[in-house]
Hints:
Layout: H1 30-48, H2 52-58, H3 60-67, H4 79-94
Helix pairs in contact: 1-2, 1-4
Amino acid sequence: RAWAAGWLVARANSCRIYHKYAASTNASRPLVLYYMLRNILLFSSRVIGDPVSVVMLRRPLLWMWALGPLFGLRSFRHPSVKLAVLRALVHAVRGREGRCSTYSPP
């Protein structure tokens, strides 16, 4: 997509990427879960080319994965985690990007 948009595309073989959170990061933390879920939904929407709500309707496995924590289908029982999932869904459907003031310092 970047190439098609006219951007210069290059590759730097000597570069390394360091992730802020390790693979062992507790994914049930509200902060991690909010950004992970919201960004997966927004990304899926862009790739598929439909709004998030349509993607959720047409992709039932994605829908079940996203809503599972709300209904206790997975081990996310804490109310703050359920609220983070609900907030991520609402923000994804509204197309909200960037920082969430609830989970990120100003």
